[in-house]
Protein 1
Amino acid sequence: SDPVRLAQYEAPNWLVEDVHLTFRLHPTATRVTSRIRFRPNPDSADRGFRLDGEDLKLLSASIDGRAVEPRIDAEGLSVDAPNDAFIWECEVEIDPKANTRLEGLYMSKGMYCTQCEAEGFRRITFYPDRPDVMAPFTVRIESDQPVMLSNGNPTASGDGWAEWHDPWPKPAYLFALVAGELRATSTTHRTSEGRDATLNVWVRPGDEDRTGYALDALKRSMEWDERVYGRAYDLEVFNLVAVDDFNMGAMENKGLNIFNSKYVLASPETATDRDYELIEGIVAHEYFHNWTGNRITCRDWFQLCLKEGLTVFRDKQFSGDVRGHAVKRIDDVLMLRARQFREDAGPLAHPVRPEEYVEINNFYTATVYEKGAEVIGMLRTLAGPEAYDRALTLYFDRHDGDAATIEDFFACFQEVTGNALTGFERWWSQAGTPRVTAVTHWSGDVLTLTLRQSTPATPGQPQKGPVWIPLATGVLSPDGKEVAPTQVLTLKTSEATFRLEGGIWRPSDGPAADPLPASVEPAPILSLNRGFSAPVILDRKVTDAERLILLAHDTDPFNRWEAGRQVAKEQLLRALDGGALDPAWFDALGRLVSDDSLEPAFRALALGLPSEDDIAQSLHDAGRTPDPARIHAIREDVLQGLAEAQAPLFRALVDALVTHGPYSPDAEAAGRRALRLRALDMLSRLDGGDAAAEVFATADNMTESLSALAILIRRGTGEAESGTFFTRWYDDPNTLDKWFSTVIGNAAPDEAVAVARRLTALPEFDPKTPNRFRSAVGALSANTAAFHHASGEGYRFLADWLIVLDPINPQTAARMTTAFETWRRYDGDRQGMMTDQLRRILATGPSRDVTEIATRLLGD
Ligand code: HT7
Ligand code: ZN
């Protein structure tokens, strides 16, 4: 297919005044009638009339009551339209039961539900399915299902029917309908503007006792958005529905959020601390879309980061407020580096605002979401928190009801800052992670810092320009005292120098600094990019001794953790080269991890080593070829060394951090469990897994059961526990998913593919359910040493299943094909095996979704 291009945007010819839809639900033959009032768009001179539509059986069509015979093609229809406003009516038939793509109207365990973002509505009826066509919707549902929901407020209902009206103009991608046997857990919320809203969390019968946390998270999100952004809810009801078959996490349909049940249902016995955290964050994210996405939507899909980056930034602020900013930031940066930096470094790299796409579903990426959120964060850092608040208020006031662009959003910042940010724009047009080198010079009383930036070439963008890089910077004395507090130094050009005099940094136009001469000692220690204020890769010569001082004393918790991380990375790289580990590192880690004045969650993070994938990327960045088997083995050796060096500490932590009393998912309790379970992992390297087996046998919560199971499987001793877990949770889809992912994801590199083949042959494995597919097949591609096994069986296993999945569910298949994105890092044999599998997939004539990803991955 031809790509869609940002540069070719044209306003719609026709706008929609209002829409009436009637659904006569039937599993295999649902009838949808539409009555749509069109009016000419004054911003377009073209009066051609075309509607999008896919896989629809058109039964009748009329314009102003007169039957018409449209020209139908694979992507929609066209018909000669009047010159002025008119009413389009049509009836179509669709087959929800056959819809395994899970886009449009489909069935999940006997329940009807919809997914319309990005282009699913065109699989429900003919419509101008583009985000800049917004209209109020009135919906009538006729069915024998006891609960029938759509967007907006309920207006009337009777036996076998229900009507809904959504007064807020919305694009079709926010349309939703759900019908089924559902049970609600409800509460009310009085908004800051004095309106009452009923909040319902709808689930299948039997799941009602797992809804409390999501409902509470929703209420807290509503209060937070009122308090922090001054944004209140605007309908009489807010419905949230959990479904088991879902392509992504959740969907922000106006007044009717639909969620993957994995991100709603929680009880201590079935959900981990991480599940609770994700539920809270995703509930908040979808709710926050009510303003950033729904009230103000996107003009076109190229502007996706306008709603996604901004909403991710908002949900991160919320989670930071609830759970603590330092730990949240470290978690977020771990994820950013693991997913977005990796994407930016590979063949799928694209700007936060892409310039073209073949299949828009392929652009719901870490770059659009996570780097998009970083871009908003940098705007806030540069403008300052007050100006940020004013810019957002201006944006909400000015664009409420609009389908907006990034330029519209940025203009609000320019207005409140007096155009102070001109030059920042490259952040959304340029792909690739900027690299910053930093060189210091210490004269004895003046510290000079020279920063240089460059961004590597990415597909379609061989040349890069400088971006604005706000680096929050502090300075410590060699004995660990802070001598200059955090100040933001913004690098706007390829190179700039700053001088620290009297505790204040100033731009310097003097000559660029030379590297620190070894004779001038002791120099102050720089703490650069505090809080990870800019999403860049820092390249700087720092000695282990300096890092250990930062690890022990930095006042910025993020950089404290980062110092430990960098030391760990260097130690691992040294070990890979056959070098000895520095005992000072184990001692420093031991001191940090046993420091009771620090939050347990922070200490748990400090104990985490870079992943095998991180190490592979670091080697590749250094111009070397990673060997996944060796990385796995050496990393395990290092962990063994650490366990032996700090055995008493780990034993003590496992004993001391037992939680007493009833389980609570709050951040404090979760942090204690996280530290205890890290220590348990260490201990298992010394006691053969006895303590972990004990934890598994006695745990009263899923966090501990599942971690203990993972530890035992890693030690190769968890067979009995695995069987116990399977038998206990056999009937619970979300919990059985955890079994699939834990058993496959922790299997030894030489065995994992055989294990994965065995588990995917079980009757419980169903590729039609995305959660199950991701849990099993995705776990193998996330098991780095197994996926990259020299036999190539990991690659073959993934490709085999992608070929099965693609005709069933192309969106999920395409997303999972991205596991091959690192192929260029590896040796010739592995490169050949990975590209062979991609070509094998392409030879099957796959969907547009998979074709686009596989072709971009190959780069030919
Ligand atoms: N806005 C949504 C993104 C989305 C999606 C969700 C579920 C299934 C398919 C989807 N395609 C796109 C989710 C969000 O970012 O909030
Ligand atoms: Zn979103």
Protein 2
Amino acid sequence: MALTLFTLALALPAVLALENGLARTPQMGWNTWNHFGCGISEDTILSAAKALVSNNLTSYGYEYVIVDDCWQAPARDPSTGAPVADPSKFPNGIKDVADQVHNMGLKFGIYSSAGTYTCGGRFGSLDHEEIDAKTYASWGVDYLKYDNCYNEGRAGTPKISYDRYANMTRALNATGRPILYSMCNWGEDGPWNFAVDIANSWRISGDIHDDFDRYDDRCPCTSILDCKLPGFHCAMSRIIDFAAPVGQKAGPGHWNDLDMLEVGNGGMNFDEYVTHFSMWALVKSPLILGNDITNMSNDTLTIITNDALIAVNQDPNGSPASRIWKRTLPEGGDLQLWQGSLVNNQFVFALMNTSPNPQTVNVSFTDVFVDQGASYQSGTFTLYDLWQKDPSSGAWGLNLGDFTGSVPNVQIGTHQTKVWKAIPVSTSQKRDRAEL
Ligand code: GLA
């Protein structure tokens, strides 16, 4: 009997599903990379953690403080093989930093690569998954960003990539500590298809560049679905294009990651950063700040604390917005309409103008409610502009009144995005068919 059970156990597939219960809504926090690159130390992390608290960003949901590349010593511990931190940057070790971050009521994240080296040339975790996961857990790590550099060619089919990344899923699960697993393989081999039950999020593209729309050959793909070279220097609005077809694959516990935010890093203007933050929120990307939060302008703080947009991102439905249409304009760029469902039969929709000119648009409810059907398309909705504040309460979301059929005559400036929340006035609207 014992032998039979043993044989049966061997025959069952290893349980790989990510059972960590984390990221039921997209993760929020701050990461070192976009602003500081390799120029980090214990002080960078602790100052940022203090700034999260002192700027009250924790009350908006920002909770993870994540150390990206270049925290590692030149080599692993020669006797145990365990990872070691660079003693000049982290003289008290990583556990001490993690403890201090925890004492501020925050969570702590770290970075490695599913390769021989990280992208910054430090030791990677390929074939060291177990000892690395164990060590991270012993340090009190709550989050792992796991990159793709120097992967020894172990990519090229979804199965090969899956196996390489699932080794870390297994190792993290085995520690018994809940560690959010943020895969960063730049969309290679289509992680939206294969990573849904091994990771909490996956990067969909090459690295973001702090720029609205500049084309750069180092981000050569026009779509990510068959992208052979994700590259880097991907302008922000190109990543929005990349995200459009894969929203359908994300949901609670498993998200498309459009990369860390650039809001506040200086490469875009206010309207462009509003577009950036709005679209990351609507498609349910993790919201990981990437600026120097110890030194922020009021504009930056205004954008990253728009709690109406954050509520869209964190909506319990976890349903990413879809692009309803994209209209290319003769002067260059386009207009795009996006729509998503929220809890309690509420909706969010957004109009984005990537063209160089201001535009005037009638936003038709036939388009906005294309998925909900006729009774919604002809229904009446109270609309709230999520980038205007209610003058009496000061809260984001100005009540614009009730609308039937369309939002007429919308004036939208160059590179702007307008976001509306729609609440049905009558609850009689019946959906034509179940939404996906
Ligand atoms: C890759 C990742 C980035 C960052 C760097 C660090 O490029 O995609 O987000 O982690 O590596 O070297």
